[in-house]
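Closing statement on the nicotinamide-adenine-dinucleotide sub-project.
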Amino acid sequence: MSYTRLPVTTPTGDYEVVIGAELLGSAADLIRAATPAAAMALVTDENVWALYGAAVAGGLRDSGVRVVEIVVPAGEASKSWQRAGEVCERLAEARLDRTDAVVALGGGVVGDLAGFCAAVYLRGIDYVQVPTTLLAQVDSSVGGKTGVDLAAGKNLAGAFKQPSLVLADVSVLATLPGTEWTSGLAEVAKVAMLESREMVDVLIAEAPALLGRDEQPVVDVVLAAVRHKAAVVAADEREAGERESLNYGHTLGHAIEQVAGYGAVPHGIAVAEGMRFAALLAEVVVGAPEQTRVLQDQLLDALGIERPTYPRDARRLLDAMHADKKARSGTVRYVFVPEPGRHVVVPVDDATIAHVLDLWFDGESERG
Ligand code: NAD
Ligand code: GLY
């Protein structure tokens, strides 16, 4: 077992992201070093429970922790207000107190849900993220955004709450279904576009190895993505400025997830589609060069990220975009990346968005 520790420093808490292979066997020791909790609620979903639940729960019990197992159905539908209430009720029934902790073992759904429960239960108890999807390892487990979806939009109820530890074991990614793998690669592509041309080029070159899930390239992209995110979150924990960049692709992406029905299009795949559209819109709104869109398409294609099926309905998508948390005073704001490594956040009027969406969808039907 070898691993790297990356520090994350924020105004509300400092912690480490531990990244490596074959780490689950040491999870209990690493978790116990990060929190003094004597009792821990292990929150996970049915799929992850079947694969890794016993190993983590057993390790914690062997180290003397009282473990309360809370297993929720897999999928985006579990990121709901109702499910969060049920989890909090379970924490209370198990009499977890303010010195106890939550361990989120799973993908972004479990991490967001369990983190939200840890943020509100007893007005906040410790929690640890053990992300088991690529998407959660490169993005959602780091930075302290927790929350649930509302019918009106994604992530509309939530809290900032930094974890005490993030434990990213790349070995567990071996069991991830193919679509979830590409969904995670989409968030990596997002980071590359925000970070630098160099990272985009490296990803394109490494794409075959990443699609083959070769261990070292995977560890490298998790490290690169977490380094990028840690720097952004350290500068702007509460998304007052710089952190908005991480929502690149999310304005249309979240709208697609909502309009298609939560869970129908994996988050990263929806974000990639949002990146493709944002690149086109950026040409119209900020005069971004076409070559950026061409390069981004090359990157997404190399990573095997195909365009998803969802209602090509500009009006419904636009309505959903108005629920976006970046929207201000009724105006949708877009993150644009005119060239890799440089972003701007710009208000865009509805007529322009609808027009470019229509053009984009018409172009698809003409190509057949
Ligand atoms: P997910 O949590 O639904 O996991 C995807 C699927 O993979 C599920 O069916 C799960 O059971 C399964 N799975 C998880 N780990 C597995 C493993 N190791 N082997 C086999 N199967 C496994 O989806 P996700 O893509 O991880 O997360 C998406 C969520 O993350 C969305 O709700 C999104 O809004 C959120 N998100 C949050 C942030 C943040 O900063 N908080 C950032 C990005 C995304
Ligand atoms: N995924 C966006 C953020 O964490 O800010």
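The chain is about 50% helix and 20% strand. With this model delivered, the sub-project is considered complete and its resources will be redirected to Aim 3.
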